[in-house]
Please model this.
Amino acid sequence: MSFKLDVVRCGRHMVRCSRSAGARRNWKYPPRLQLRTLATTTEKPLVSSSSDHLKFSYPNANSNLRRSSLPNFWLRDNCRCSSCVHQDTRQRNFNTFDLPEDIQPSQIHTNEDGIKIQWSGDGHESFYPWDFLEFYLNSDKREPEPIKLEYFGTQGPHNSRSWPPTLKYNDFSANETGAVGRLTDFIRRNGFAFVTDVPVESAEPTEKLLEKIAFIRQTHYGGFYDFIPDLALADTAYTNIALGAHTDTTYFTDPAGLQAFHLLSHTGPSSENNSGVNLGGQSLLVDGFYAASILKKEDPKAFEVLSRVKLPWHASGNKGITISPDKLYPVLEVDESTGKLHRVRWNNDDRGVVPFDSEYSPVDWYKAARKWHDILRRESIEYWFQLKPGNLLVFDNWRVLHGRSAFTGVRRICGGYINRDDFISRWRNTNYPRDEILKRVIG
Ligand SMILES: [Fe+2]
Ligand SMILES: [Zn+2]
Model:
């Protein structure tokens, strides 16, 4: 069933003519009643037009809509037709501000699938499916994909079926998209994942594998790295110091989203017999979101202070390089619209001077940061493991802190950073149908 209506301007209001099954009637309404019934089906709302809105009313008066109308200009701006949305780039293909501010429908045509509107002025035709209209009648905006984070401690998450989250290198040749989807989904939910059986003869297979997620990020240190210690030093036993749990690149406006390590080899000093020698170098991961949830529970004020006091961060160790973020950032960034923890930024060595102009004093900050530091060092939340050649570790650097114990001998490590946005894009596109992604991202 469908209806077609001509809409003619009449002073401030509109007079409409309805054609239904060839019949044409005149509609007369008191001017104060902007809402006019144009069309209905048993399931679909009654649609009517006012000077600046399209109004929707459901026959069921109890319908709990978030709103009962959508602005004309908003509708025209969100036309989904192939000339308004570039079909290749999905970009808006017209200048919103060329549209008249008081644009109105001249014809409205409804059917089972949606509403077709012909607009006044240029006579452009738009079609809005019911699911698009009803979504925005019921919701304010599209939300990101729902995700249930699984916090981990020493033993992994509660009720974990498989710990730690692991894939095999061969999974990627068997079904690349499926494997990348599982890898990125593990990282998204659990904060990290391992890929086992990665070739160790060269760094190239590791680099190629990481590039299946997204391109490797360039920084002032370079891009993908393959660190081979100076062999002249390899004859001398040396100890590399322990590193406490931290996130990397706190000094970037947009810290590295993912970080990857692959220990290609670890050999003892050549003067020693390597067999049975404990070379140390245990690796540490700490779930910063889990740690922050503990902080919030045990000391809400400390959580508040670490999320409110914005700090300077810097990288100044290389000649000619002084990097600092675009503005000050707190240790715990909370998303203002959801109230949820969004990002952890923690490397005490890269932190600048605690400022005096915050709502909390430096003394408050040090007290809160000490509590945070103590939680990060609790045995119950530290996840220790030995990096082994063949095992690639990839983790979420916005959530998971990393560190290591002291080690002896020579380690050859390769790895790199991947941008957050590129990681999320890859996760989306390997875990959701394209249609659903476009709906969420574009609307
Ligand atoms: Fe690091
Ligand atoms: Zn259009």
User: Anything to note?
Assistant: Residues 246, 248, 402 surround fe (ii) ion (ligand 1) (CB under 6 Å). The chain is about 25% helix and 25% strand. The chain has two domains: 3-140, 166-438.
